[in-house]
Specification:
Strand order of the largest sheet: 3-2-1-4-5
Number of helices: 12
CATH class of the largest domain: Alpha Beta
Radius of gyration: 25 Å
CATH topology of the largest domain: Argininosuccinate synthetase, chain A, domain 2
Number of domains: 3
Length: about 400
């Protein structure tokens, strides 16, 4: 038997889509709707959502600054894994969804709501990410996904609905938007409309967080990032909180044209999609983390991490953040980071970020062993036996083929 919806917690941005969803939920389910608006560094004021929600009769309004929690408990654990989806995507949208889902469920408990709702469409990945998060944290929750239920199937129908219900519409929403945008402190993405043709190069107007590499300064910039147990903790010797650090890296990366990606990816629901992503700070952080790992991680530990990384990235992309397998992988990854502390120096120049220095009190790099000068710690004759043992199975295989 279908559970009667008594109260709904809506993930509410205050924009056209979620404002229409708010009114539609009130009319369709005849119940109280609680709004939740999260500041995860999207770069827009979130307080205006309060007045819009109040205008639409909402009594319980939650607006929360989650930037520090987002970076500390979601972005940083993922970056310890060096996660890249399909070799290039730093998972900026994917990693934000479990945090929003978690807070919605917590607010549902707090307010006595028995349902949650989101504004993700029935074609994308976000519906999966939100709902896997909901069910992981509350197996009995009722989920309402308006885009899978209503008949408001176009932008013009949304606008007509909004106008008929006196819902304010931003002027730039009245026409056909050239593309849709999603943003948080880690990245900003653009997709759809003018970007749907994968052969067509995006116009410069698509980019909002990064200078074009051609317009970036002609002089390179050098920065140093400090790490403790796999997490970045400071820039140029200045200690910073997780959100402060990522904010500074975004500014440094954006001003040097770093972090642009034009990607055709495989969505979890089965289709390919084209997205334009800007992840300036994340791109620098990824390079820096690999740089500090290069001198602090044992070879086989590093290689095992690299083998597991695609699996970890796929779990995050597909929405399985709260799954036991992701948590198991995280425990292994975090164990590997116990000695990943030190400093990395990077050169930023016209869209490129290069590691040019790294040092650590836990360094496994031994100049005495690798030097081309005289040394007293390495007997080069030992390599002969090592190579012969490695070649034994190859020699036996060839000897057998010669007998045939």
């Amino acid at each position: 038997m279908k559970t009667k919806v008594e109260k709904i917690v809506l993930a509410y941005s205050g924009g056209l889509d979620t404002s229409v969803i708010l009114k539609w939920l009130q009319e369709t389910y005849k119940c109280e709707v609680v709004t939740f608006t999260a500041d995860i560094g999207q770069g827009e004021e979130v307080e205006p959502a309060r007045s819009k929600a109040e205008m639409l009769g909402v009594k319980e309004i939650f607006i929360e600054d989650l930037r520090e929690e987002f970076v500390k408990d979601y972005v940083f654990p993922m970056f310890r894994a060096n996660a890249l989806y399909e070799g290039i995507y730093l998972l900026g949208t994917s990693i934000a969804r479990p945090l929003i889902a978690k807070r919605q469920i917590e607010i549902a408990y707090k307010t006595g709501a028995n349902a949650v709702s989101h504004g993700a469409t029935g074609k994308g990945n976000d519906q999966v990410r939100f709902e896997l998060g909901y069910y992981s944290l509350n197996p009995d929750i009722t989920i309402i996904a308006p885009w899978r239920e209503w008949d408001l199937t176009s932008r013009s129908k949304l606008i007509e609905y909004a106008e008929s219900h006196q819902i304010p519409i931003s002027k730039d929403k009245r026409g056909e938007a050239p593309f849709s945008v999603d943003a948080n402190l880690l990245h900003i993405s653009a997709e759809g409309k003018a970007l749907e043709d994968p052969w067509s190069e995006p116009e410069e107007i698509v980019y909002s967080r990064t200078l074009s590499p051609e317009d970036a300064p002609d002089k390179s910039s050098y920065i140093e990032i400090n790490f403790e147990k796999g997490d970045a903790v400071g820039i140029n010797g200045q200690p910073l909180s997780p959100a402060e650090l990522l904010t500074q890296l975004n500014e440094l990366g954006g001003s040097n044209g770093i972090g642009r990606v034009d990607l055709v990816e495989n969505r979890f629901v089965g289709m390919k999609s084209r997205g334009i992503y800007e992840t300036p700070g994340g791109t620098i952080l990824h390079a820096a983390h690999r740089g500090i790992e290069s001198i602090t991680l044992d070879r086989e530990a590093m290689h095992l991490k690299d083998e597991l990384m695609p699996r970890y990235a796929k779990l995050v992309y597909n929405g399985f953040w709260f799954s036991p397998e992701r948590e198991m992988l995280q425990a292994l990854i975090d164990k590997s980071q116990e000695n990943v502390s030190g400093k990395v120096r990077l050169k930023l120049y016209k869209g490129n970020v290069n590691v040019v220095g790294r040092k650590s009190p836990n360094s496994l790099y031994s100049i005495d062993h690798v030097t081309f000068e005289d040394d007293s710690v390495y007997d080069q004759r030992d390599a002969q036996g090592f190579i012969k043992l490695q070649a034994l199975r190859l020699r036996l295989k060839k000897a057998l083929s010669n007998q045939e």
